[in-house]
Amino acid sequence: MSKKLRIDVIRRCDALIIGAGGAGLRTAVEILSRIPDASVIAVTKVSSPQKSHTTTAQGGFAAVNPEDPYDKPVFHMFDTWKGSDCSADQNVIKKIVETAWEQTLWLDAHGLHFTRNEEGRLSRRTFGGHTLNFGKGPHAFRAVFEADRTGKGIMDTVWGESLKRNVTFINQSIATELIIAGNRCIGAVLLEEPQGKFTAVLAKVTIISTGGFGQVYKITTNCRQNTGDGLALVLQEGLPVMDLEAVQFHPTGIVGPGILASEALRGEGGILLNKDLEPFMERYAPKAKDLAPRDVVSRAIETEIREGRGVINPHFNLPHVWLDIRHLSDYVHDVKLPEVTSFFTRFTGINPKKELCPVRPTVHYQMGGIPTDEFGEAQKNATEIIPGLYAVGEAASASFHGFNRLGTNSLVELFTMGKVVGARAADAIKEIDLPEKAPRDAGEKTFARFSGYLEAKGKENLWDIRTAMRDVMTEKVGVFRNEKDLSDAIEHLMEFHERSRHVSLTHSSLVMNQELIDRWELDNLLMVAMIIAQGARARKESRGAHTREDYPERRDDFNYHTLATMREYGRVEFGKRPIDMSLFKEQGPDAKYFDFIARKY
Prior knowledge:
The chain is α/β, with parallel strands linked by helices. It has helices spanning 22-34, 73-83, 90-109, 150-164, 229-236, 264-267, 294-306, 330-336, 338-348, 409-431, 444-455, 462-476, 483-500, 514-538, 582-585; strands at 7-18, 40-43, 61-62, 125-131, 139-144, 168-170, 173-181, 184-192, 197-208, 241-242, 247-254, 271-273, 321-324, 357-366, 370-371, 377-379, 385-391, 396-397, 480-481, 547-548, 560-568, 571-578. The strands form six sheets. Strands 1, 2, 6, 7, 8, 9, 16 and 17 form an eight-stranded mixed sheet that branches. A four-stranded antiparallel sheet has the order 11-14-13-12. It has a three-stranded antiparallel sheet with strand order 3-5-4. The chain is globular and about 65 Å long. The N and C termini lie far apart (61 Å).
């Protein structure tokens, strides 16, 4: 190379937020509500925060009004614990559920246009796994919403509040390396794509809120930018990620693009049918039926397809089942869920008022992520944190979801934990001094990686590798898993990693070079994929969304969170973090509901 890579700019701030979606901006707003003159920089990979993946969230925000005569926060806690297949952390469940209604009122007061009923009160809808009276009662109508654009409403609200509070945005830029001094994180190295400059941002606190890793798989509801970048950041530093084997497949992805057909459709009365037009969910979840949790419904659909009861339709390239929403009212189609129902017309040419809609499971969410304590402080092992580093939103795992997330619990987590993390970070900002200078080795990992990309010679095509990786992950690390497929996947990933070293880029510029970003993303995806596959092989049981055909039962031997580090590609080291059982150990009047319980619906 003719030009040696170097840090071109140094910036300083109180808080650096990597990822400007709903979780990151809620954190920023909370910091600035407590310290109005704090300097906050928010970095986003996309051209505007309004392109963040949070904007695509459709269905709702789970929150129990304390004055509700039927529902109670403890019922929501129980549903979350049971839905997680007894692997969420109970201290986190309690913190989030008890904060949810307060944050609903915050959103309402700050301008989110919640859908209301004829009496002017917040409308509510039901989602799978949400029940009354510890599962004994009917489905709980617990989710408030803004039509089928709840995520967009949240983003509009927090983006507006961020602009009012003078958050500095660095758009279309990526964080390539954490800056660690001693045992503390003091910022990160960025590549600002429009200028082609490497920037070191020194900060009192650094918050990772980069979202999920859906692009590891071939068919996903996730946006193009969801490539596991935050997870790769911490893995690069020898830090752990947690429970990456817990991948959520949403049962009703629209066949073709994989775009989400919200669970709200089933909440309104939509019914899943097989090729014989039989409503089949009663076989798998006799009580909950179509509103069983997502892992249960996804396995049911895949089983119907495997056993020959799926639909083979010449208009689509893969077998599927039907979602019948023809009987829903025009009000549901046109007012309550207009975008979702229109997706079928737009992407499949179907009129959902008159025709059956083709669906099958699609990768949707990561239950795992960067391990944090209940305040969002990133951990370097099961008991110690990394001072100065936080994680929030889908990139983080506190863990509220355990091994299976209930619908609408993602938005409530990202928003309530944004407040919690913002409060914790604000306390830290008040107590510590801004770093004076970056360590001498700041940027070395970045420059080694990017020099390697720019100088590599060979005829491998990065998109061929990326496509092959996604195919392998979809076929061998999907809804159903087994030892042979997982071992095969790991071998393929080793091959893909070797091939990636022989990808020659067309252009060597750092300025707006999408090919260079694609190459960097490929490394991130390969890192994350390897952890998923090895974690899935090591966990010889079935728990929530992680289903092993060769180990079909949940086993007490695996009552823990998986911590995984990878200092050399393919050499994954595993540790354990205990599952918090504080609601059970407190032995309150409802303690029996928070033991390790059978999971039936």
